[in-house]
Amino acid sequence: MDAAPLVVTSKGRVRGFRRGGTAVFLGIPFAQAPVKALRFAAPVAVDPWEGERDATAYGATAQRGDTGITLIPEPSVPGESTLNVNVFAPFEATPDTALPVLVWIHGGGFVSGSPASRWYDGDAFARDGVVTVVVSYRLGFDGFGHIERAPANRGLRDQIAALEWVRDEIRAFGGDPARVTVAGQSAGGGSVLALLASPAASGLFAGAMALSPALGAVAAPAARRFAERLATLAGVRPDREGLAALPEELLLDLQRQAQKPERRFSRAGLTALLDDGLPLGPVVDGDLLPRSPLDALAGGASAGIPLVVGATDDEFTMLTARARGVLALAPVPLVLAAVGLGRSRRRAYLARSRRRGGAARLGGYLSDRVIRSVVLRAARARAGGPDGAATWVYRFAWPSPSIGFSCHCLDVPFWFDHLDAEGVSAIAGDAPPRDLAAQLHGAAVAFVRHGDPGWPAWDATARRARVFGAPASTATVDPDAYLDVAPLV
Question: Where is the Carboxylesterase type B domain (predicted)?
Answer without folding.
Answer: 4-321
